[in-house]
C-alpha cells in the first residue's frame, strides 16, 4: 500500500512509497482504510524533532476512515463502520482515567514506541501510534471511534485532533466566562477552534494575533472581534483593556517567547492557557515574585483538557446546529501524492487546515 514516510528526523520532505505494509493486527486491534486526514502542526514538529518520535515514521494522527477488519474481542465496531481516529485513547483503568482525567492517560503513548508499519528495508513507526498518511493503518481498537453517517470523513478527521484541542481549551480548560476579553496567539486550525470556543462561551472581545494576514482575515470570519499582527498586541491590550491585560490569553504556538508574551498580555488574576506543543528544551521563565504577586493562572491544555469522547460528541452536535464552522477550516485539499505541497502550505501559514484525501 501507499504511505508517506519520513526516513530521518530533521528531513523536510516526505517520500510517498508503495511498499509499506500495516502490521500488528490481532486481538484488540482494528484495521482501518483511511479516507481523509488533516495535516496538524504537531506532524511538522515531530518531523523536525521538536516532539519526540522514533523514526523512520509515517506522520499523521488526525484521520478518519472505514473499518476493514476487527480482531478478537472487538465488539464496538465492525467492518464497514465509519470511524474517526483518536490518537490518545483512554485505557479506563489507570489512575488518570479513574480520576476522570482520561485525556491524561498514558496508555496511548506506549503505542508510539511500537512499529505500525514495515517495509522491505525494516520497521516503520506511526506518529503518535497512528500514522494516518497511509492508505491503511492498524491501531488499538480504542482508537476507532464510530461516527454518524451524516459526518463527512474530512470533518471527522478535524474533530479527531485540532478542533477538539482548540475548542476544548476554551470550553473545558479555561472555561471562558461570558462577557470576558480574550486574546488568541496563533491562528492556525487549533487557534481558530479556540476562537470559536471563546465565542461559544460568550466572550465579548476576542483578539486574534498572527503574523500571517490571511490567517488574521480568517479569524474574523470565525468569531474574532479584531485581528492584529504580533507587533500590535500591546496596542490592542491598551485600547481594549485599558492596559490591564486580557481576562484569557491562549498561546497556540508552542514556543516560550510567545508564551512569555501571552503571560505579559494576561491581566493580574487572569488566565494564560497554553495550548501549543513545544520542545523539551524550550523553557518558559517566570520569576517567583510575579508568579506570587500577579496571581495569574497558567493552565496547560492537553488535547482539549477533557474526556475526548464527550468532546467529539459535543463538536458534532455544535457543527450540526451551525454553532461552529468546520468546513471553513479546510482551506486546501491535496491527494497523498502531493503531501509535500501540504507541508509547504502549513509552513508558510497559507493553510488553516489541509485535508489529505487518500
Tell me what you see in this structure.
- The radius of gyration is 20 Å and the shape is globular.
- Strand 16, helix 10 and strand 17 form a beta-alpha-beta unit.
- The longest helix has 13 residues.
- The chain is of the alpha/beta class and 358 residues long.
- Helices cover 29% and strands 26% of the residues.
- It contains twelve helices and 19 strands.
- Strands 4, 6, 7, 10, 11, 18 and 19 form a seven-stranded mixed beta sheet that branches.
- The N- and C-terminal alpha carbons lie at a distance of 11 Å
* Shape category: globular
Mean pLDDT: 96
The number of helical segments is 12
Radius of gyration: 20 Å
What is the number of strand segments? 19
Major sheet: 7 strands, mixed
Unreliable parts:
none
Structural class: alpha/beta
Strand content: 25-35%
The helix content is: 25-40%
How are the secondary structure elements laid out?
Layout: E1 3-5, E2 15-17, E3 21-22, E4 29-38, H1 41-48, E5 57-58, E6 62-70, E7 82-85, H2 95-98, H3 107-110, E8 117-119, E9 122-126, E10 136-140, E11 144-146, H4 153-159, H5 162-173, E12 181-185, H6 189-200, E13 205-209, H7 213-221, E14 226-228, H8 233-241, E15 246-251, H9 256-265, E16 266-274, H10 288-294, E17 297-300, H11 308-320, E18 330-335, H12 339-348, E19 353-357
List keywords for this structure.
358 residues, six-stranded parallel sheet, 12 helices, 29% helix
Brief summary:
The protein is α/β, with parallel strands linked by helices.
